[in-house]
Structure formats: structure tokens, C-alpha cells
């Protein structure tokens, strides 16, 4: 019997104002916030053999019930995390925040790790993963290091710097046995103090943490770069293939 493709939930943490509705006729629906998610996440999961399912930012109390129907979880990029979530004051360079969305994502990723559901976290998602388990963030990287511009001007399909990966780590295994892996960069925040149960496994040339992963045997991996727009490079496509493979294995295990 052929195993069914795993269902991979993808969070959509970015909210946008409905500008189109404002310009439409009076008969149109009233303006309201809309969730936004880049299609490259979904295409990358589909190309790897999974079925992507977009997760709306619903009440965090529903997160466990949503997770019951999923085989894997991908935390996407998006806005800054509200600093009170990790016990910090808001920095003057902080961008727009959505605390309710933060709470939903942190709840569902905690539940996922607890239940052994495979997790791939990207950009903001890696930061959510760290904060969810007690870690902290650098709120504005230019105040930490000016040796590297972490907000590139080139398209996301183009790498802008390299990362050094930890020998023996999952990210090294997936990206290839090299300590100079090209990645892209679209962030001004990054992991600072690492949460218990996680460890840093990749770094930018200026020392910024670029990947974290779980200490246990389960698939828990966060990368600071936008791997979904680099899947034309085999090493980055391997991240999504590994998520789908782990989710397929998880789906095959009967529920307790």
C-alpha cells in the first residue's frame, strides 16, 4: 500500500490591510485585515512530495486540535515578534507586531515538538521556535554587528552571504559537507540566547546564528534564511525533502 502524502501545516503570520476592498464599490465587502503567505513555501513543500495546508492565525486554544490533523509543521517568515514574549522592552527599530499571532505560533510549535511532529521553521519561524521554548532575540542586528548586511537588496532567489555549519549537525547533513553554504538574507532580528533543548548549528560570517535545531532525535530545525526561494539549489531543496520524509514517517506511526 502506497503511503499517502503527508499534510504539512504552514503558518501565515503576516497580516495586511485590505487595500483592494477600500478602492472597490460601495457594494463590496468592508475593508478588513487579510492574512498573507508567499506561494514559494507551498510550492517547495509540494515539490518535495507533501501536501501544504495553510494555517490561519486562529485562537491559540485551537492549536492542539489543528495539530491532530497534521503530519508536519512549517513556520513561515513574517513580522517581528513582540518583545514582551521574551521579557524584553520594545526597541525603537521594532517593526509592526501581532501578539495574538505570536501566541498561536508559539503554542502550536510547542505542541508539535511535544508530540514529535516534525518542524521546519524559516526566518521569523526560527525566531518563534527559539522564543517559544524560552530563548531571546537580538531586536536589531545593526546594533550588534555592522560587518554584514542582513537585509539584501537582491531577489530572494540569489544568495548574499555564506553560513558555516556545525559538523555532525542535521543542517550540515542536509546542506552538504561544507562550511561555506550560500544563503539569502532578509531580516534585522536573530536568535540571541538559545532556548533549552535547542542548539545553534550554523553561523553567518559575523557570528549571527543562522540555524538552530533540537537536541533530541525528532526533526526540529530552524533556519534564518528564506530557503523556500532557494529550492532551485539542491542543498536548500533538501530541507523541505527532509521535512516531508520525517512527516511521512510520523504519519505511518499509529496514534497512541
TrEMBL record:
EC category: transferase
Region feature Disordered, mapped onto this chain: 148-168
CDD domains: GATase1_2 (cd01745)
The keyword Glycosyltransferase belongs to this UniProt entry's keyword annotation: yes
GO molecular function, one term: gamma-glutamyl-gamma-aminobutyrate hydrolase activity
GO terms under biological process: polyamine catabolic process
Protein name (database record): Glutamine amidotransferase
Amino acid at each position: 500500500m502506497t503511503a499517502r502524502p503527508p499534510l504539512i501545516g504552514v503558518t501565515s503570520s503576516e497580516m495586511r490591510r485590505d487595500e483592494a476592498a477600500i478602492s472597490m464599490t460601495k457594494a463590496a465587502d468592508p475593508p478588513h485585515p487579510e492574512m498573507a503567505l508567499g506561494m514559494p513555501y507551498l510550492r517547495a513543500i509540494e515539490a518535495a512530495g507533501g501536501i501544504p495546508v495553510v494555517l490561519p492565525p486562529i485562537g491559540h486554544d485551537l492549536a492542539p486540535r489543528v495539530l491532530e490533523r497534521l503530519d508536519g509543521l512549517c513556520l513561515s517568515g513574517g513580522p517581528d515578534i513582540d518583545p514582551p514574549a521574551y521579557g524584553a522592552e520594545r526597541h525603537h527599530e521594532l517593526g509592526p507586531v501581532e501578539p495574538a499571532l505570536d501566541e498561536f505560533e508559539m503554542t502550536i510549535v510547542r505542541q508539535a515538538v511535544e508530540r514529535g511532529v516534525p518542524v521546519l521553521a524559516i526566518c521569523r519561524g526560527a525566531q518563534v521556535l527559539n522564543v517559544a521554548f524560552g530563548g531571546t532575540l537580538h531586536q536589531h542586528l545593526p546594533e550588534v554587528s555592522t560587518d554584514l548586511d542582513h537585509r539584501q537588496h537582491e531577489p530572494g532567489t540569489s544568495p548574499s552571504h555564506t553560513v558555516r555549519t556545525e559538523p555532525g549537525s542535521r543542517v550540515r547533513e542536509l546542506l552538504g559537507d561544507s562550511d561555506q553554504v550560500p544563503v539569502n538574507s532578509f531580516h534585522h532580528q536573530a536568535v540571541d540566547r538559545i532556548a533549552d533543548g535547542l542548539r545553534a548549528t550554523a553561523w553567518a560570517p559575523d557570528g549571527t546564528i543562522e540555524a538552530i535545531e533540537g537536541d533530541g532525535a525528532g526533526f526540529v530545525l530552524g533556519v534564518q534564511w528564506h530557503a523556500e526561494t532557494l529550492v532551485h539549489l539542491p542543498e536548500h531543496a533538501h530541507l523541505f525533502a527532509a521535512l516531508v520524509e520525517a512527516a511521512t514517517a510520523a504519519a505511518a506511526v499509529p496514534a497512541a
